[in-house]
């Protein structure tokens, strides 16, 4: 969550750079003086002769000087307004040239650049339109006797025929060139004559929305309290039962393994010849120095890692534990669980997801209560798990929840990876006693990797597997016989040392047997093999030296070296790819089989079907949202904040129609390109909006899956399917998405004078959010949690800005050239379509002539609006599908 403020900061910095680079001088300054009617025309009262212009009406050259013309016309204030217009010379102005009074008339709604008797043009021009009386286009103001049109001034609106100007009424806002005043939407206070509406009442609306959300959360809290009371009752009933025991497991497992081995693709052998048996109703402690292969052993046995040699028998029949995934509990070393949920939430969810579907729901909840009572967690049942930032249950209690998550699923076999690491010795002993109780009372097969147990904790285990470096057995048998075995090899444990610690030192080769300083760890492995075969513990008297590495490498010829260095790694890559494809194909086949044969039951355990699983996962996702309610509200404020900044950035951007052609004909040549174009900044508004939404959306969407990947891996390894999980999270995100888009929209309109309807802007922002959110899903599926922010920023800049159609320009992209082969990127960019959609809806209500009569700029077209919305939706769908497959197809080893 920390990255969100950072992202916003980055967003703001970036946007401010963009604002600065908007060059207001070009878009605003050059035409605003015209618009506000403040053209500086020298006063006509100044005599022409005083300006040293030697005007001689008989001299054609003098008459053609445009500066003469500019002195004839005059800017005047329209009566009862502050608006200016450019007046033709009036008789009362008393403008004379060489003694002749100059004046001409013009009707309202027209402008007359000159008098209607321009003989020069009449005689020589091929242009038939020689009448200088030109209709004034909508958006301009031409009262009677206008020499040139002016933009309808702000705070007023003009009639479509440009004849009349009226003060903007109260509750409406009239920016420059207004024909239709825009309603303030009740979100702003707009007195008569308003030219801008700062909609600060939005904050009141936001406050009301926050109140509604808080009330909804409070209702949920009340319902929760009722539910808690129900569980408390159940707990009391459970306490009335005398014994804290669980029912025996339905199927017991005796797991026999022979010669288990693993050689890594690099050729390193990390496990070799591990043989033995794990029996039901007994606990086994797996110990060994760090890196000895304890985790590897558990992974090989459960099928999480693929063994390269060895056989596994289950209840004396060759079989694989992988098949019985639903009956195997695996407690990982880290407490992988959703930290914002309560102990009960987690255990109930685990039970409902993993217990047989034909088991009564009440019984499942009863099971949870039993486990809670059994694990002595009843007093913290309603506490959240918590993490480093938010205090929750203690470390020992979390460990017990970690075990409880597996116990509620009624497994027949329970593997635990270092369940006592990080716990104090008393709590560690508690956990070990608990394991013993489970195994003995339920007949479960329990094996736990244990790290430096106290003598008491060590003695709770029935069996003991000691591994040495290289993944080979040093001892495997009853715990109480272990010391006896080592003593028969000549080891003597000092009285003041714990036997468990001493045996660990033996396995690490740190202590030697009495009078046998030459004994090394490999000798211990061989001694164990001999003991297993002949039942007699002894070391070889005469050691046959194995060729050491140096002599071996010396004997390697060139071909062998080439094979090992170059061919083997290549071969392993091919092998990995092959295995990966086979794995995916098998899963796809099983998925299709399951989809087409609905009635086919899982012979091992029929767990809730895809629909029930969806509902359960949806409920959990909603619970996460509810438990994170403060975060939820803060997140929404962040969206609001992003919107406000974007709104500020676009507050001065608008569309102002182009001047009539007749005006451009008399414009100085250097200004002609500006005159011929409308002052169009609406595309930039779209780019800012899309950029803001993409940044905020990616960041918010990335948190949906990005922060709970490990939980997803744990759940899938316990049999959860990705489809219901993905859909449940997606559906649970809908309220977040809707409110985030609403917050952004409300903030966006605070300073921006929009002309489209509010709901139209909301729809466009919402769809863009959906696309950005889905993009966030994808990024979180492929990138690690730490890289999420950086990759998200890159994506937002790439898609939100470069591929938005503004820079590079869409018309350039479509014209081919450099973009011939990459032009399709713009077609699959949601921001590009969002910018167009906003542009179309913003331009539609504007009544400038060129909007209605000429093709739109940027290759846009009014007919494309529905297509734009569909395209954004399709792109969002595409990102969501990509995110799903990325989740499914990456890190497959962790799904097992
Ligand atoms: N997939 C793997 N790739 C490379 N090395 C591995 C892999 N799995 C295990 N190892 C190596 O095998 C040895 C045993 O690992 P592990 O079973 O995790 O030891 P531990 O006994 O501490 O649980 C370590 O040296 C580890 O680096
Ligand atoms: Mg380990």
From TrEMBL:
One of its GO terms (cellular component) is membrane. It is found in: Membrane. Keywords: ATP-binding, Membrane, Nucleotide-binding, Signal, Transmembrane, Transmembrane helix, Transport. The keyword Acetylation does not apply. GO terms for molecular function: ABC-type transporter activity; ATP binding; ATP hydrolysis activity. Its main location: membrane. Residues 1-21 form the signal peptide. Residues 255-495 form the ABC transporter domain. It holds the Pfam family ABC_tran. It is a multi-pass membrane protein. The keyword Transport applies. The chain crosses the membrane at residues 200-219, 685-707, 734-754, 761-783, 869-887. This is ABC transporter domain-containing protein. It comes from Gigaspora rosea. The lineage of its organism: Eukaryota, Fungi, Fungi incertae sedis, Mucoromycota, Glomeromycotina.
């Amino acid at each position: 969550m920390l990255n969100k403020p950072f992202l916003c900061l980055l967003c703001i910095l970036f946007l401010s750079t963009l604002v600065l680079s908007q060059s207001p001088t070009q878009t605003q300054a050059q035409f605003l003086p015209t618009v506000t009617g403040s053209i500086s025309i020298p006063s006509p009262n100044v005599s022409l002769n005083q300006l040293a212009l030697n005007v001689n009406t008989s001299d054609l050259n003098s008459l053609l000087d445009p500066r003469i013309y500019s002195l004839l016309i005059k800017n005047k204030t329209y009566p009862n307004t502050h608006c200016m217009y450019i007046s033709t010379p009036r008789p009362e102005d008393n403008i004379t040239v060489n003694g002749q009074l100059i004046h001409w008339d013009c009707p309202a709604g027209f402008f007359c650049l000159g008098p209607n008797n321009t003989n020069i043009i009449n005689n020589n021009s091929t242009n038939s339109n020689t009448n200088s009386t030109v209709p004034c286009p909508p958006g301009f103001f031409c009262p009677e006797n206008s020499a040139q049109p002016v933009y309808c001034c702000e705070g007023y609106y003009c009639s479509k025929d440009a004849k009349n100007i009226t003060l903007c009424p109260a509750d409406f806002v009239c920016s420059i060139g207004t024909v239709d005043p825009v309603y303030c939407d009740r979100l702003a206070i707009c007195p008569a004559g308003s030219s801008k509406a700062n909609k600060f009442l939005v904050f009141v609306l936001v406050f009301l929305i926050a109140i509604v959300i808080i009330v909804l959360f409070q209702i949920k809290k009340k319902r929760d309290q009722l539910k808690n009371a129900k569980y408390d009752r159940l707990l009391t009933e459970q306490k009335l039962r005398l014994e804290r025991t669980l029912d025996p497991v339905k199927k017991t497992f005796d797991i026999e393994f022979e010669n288990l081995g693993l050689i890594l693709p690099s050729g390193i052998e990390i496990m070799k010849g591990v043989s033995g048996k794990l029996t039901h109703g007994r606990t086994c402690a797996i110990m060994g120095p760090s890196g000895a292969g304890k985790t590897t052993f558990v992974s090989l046995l459960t099928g999480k890692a693929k063994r390269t040699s060895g056989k596994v028998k289950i209840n004396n029949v060759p079989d694989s534990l992988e098949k019985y995934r639903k009956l195997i509990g695996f407690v990982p070393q880290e407490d992988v669980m959703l930290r914002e949920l309560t102990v009960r939430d987690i255990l109930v969810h685990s039970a409902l997801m993993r217990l047989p579907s034909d088991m009564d729901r009440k019984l499942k909840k009863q099971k949870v209560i039993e486990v809670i009572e059994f694990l002595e967690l009843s007093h913290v049942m309603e506490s959240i798990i918590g993490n480093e930032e938010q205090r929750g249950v203690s470390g020992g209690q979390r460990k017990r929840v970690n075990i409880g998550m597996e116990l509620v699923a009624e497994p027949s076999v329970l593997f635990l990876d270092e369940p006592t690491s990080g716990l104090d010795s008393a709590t560690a002993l508690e956990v070990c006693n608990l394991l013993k109780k489970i195994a003995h009372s339920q007949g479960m097969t329990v094996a736990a990797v244990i790290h430096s147990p106290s003598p008491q904790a060590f003695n709770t285990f029935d069996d003991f597997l000691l591994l040495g470096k290289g993944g080979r057995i040093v001892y495997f048998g009853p715990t109480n016989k272990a010391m006896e075995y080592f003593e028969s090899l000549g080891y003597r444990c000092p009285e003041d040392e714990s036997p468990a610690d001493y045996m660990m030192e033996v396995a690490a080769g740190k202590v030697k047997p009495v009078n046998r300083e030459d004994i090394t760890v490999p000798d211990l492995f061989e001694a164990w093999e001999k003991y297993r075969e002949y039942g007699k513990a002894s070391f070889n008297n005469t050691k046959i030296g194995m060729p050491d590495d140096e002599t071996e490498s010396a004997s390697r010829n060139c071909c062998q070296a080439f094979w090992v260095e170059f061919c083997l790694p290549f071969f392993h890559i091919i092998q990995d790819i092959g295995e990966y494809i086979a794995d995916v194909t098998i899963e796809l086949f099983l998925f299709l089989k399951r989809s087409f044969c609905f009635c086919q039951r899982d012979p091992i355990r029929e767990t809730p079907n895809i629909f029930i699983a969806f509902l359960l996962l949806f409920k959990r996702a909603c619970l996460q949202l509810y438990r994170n309610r403060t975060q939820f509200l803060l997140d929404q404020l962040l969206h609001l904040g992003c919107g406000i900044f974007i709104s500020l950035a676009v507050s001065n951007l608008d569309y102002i129609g182009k001047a009539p052609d007749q005006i451009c004909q008399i414009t100085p040549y250097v200004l002609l390109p500006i005159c011929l174009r409308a002052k169009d900044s609406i595309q930039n508004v779209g780019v800012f909006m899309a950029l803001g939404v993409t940044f905020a959306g990616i960041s918010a969407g990335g948190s949906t899956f990005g922060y709970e990947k490990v939980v997803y891996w744990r759940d899938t390894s316990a049999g959860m399917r990705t489809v219901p999980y993905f859909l449940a999270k997606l559906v649970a995100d809908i309220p977040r998405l809707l409110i985030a888009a609403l917050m952004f929209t409300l903030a966006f309109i605070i300073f921006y004078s929009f002309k489209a309807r509010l709901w139209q802007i909301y729809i466009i922002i919402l769809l863009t959010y959906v696309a950005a959110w889905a993009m966030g899903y994808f990024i979180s599926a492929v990138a690690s949690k730490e890289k999420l922010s950086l990759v998200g920023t890159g994506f937002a800049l790439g898609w939100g800005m470069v591929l938005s159609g503004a820079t590079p320009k869409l018309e350039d992209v479509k014209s081919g050239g450099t973009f011939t082969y990459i032009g399709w990127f713009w077609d699959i960019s949601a921001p590009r379509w969002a910018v167009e959609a906003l542009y179309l809806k913003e331009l539609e209500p504007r009544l400038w002539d060129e909007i209605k009569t000429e093709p739109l700029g940027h290759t846009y077209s009014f007919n494309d609006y529905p297509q734009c919305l569909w395209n954004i939706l399709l792109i969002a769908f595409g990102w969501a599908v990509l995110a799903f497959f990325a989740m499914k197809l990456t890190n497959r080893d962790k799904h097992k």
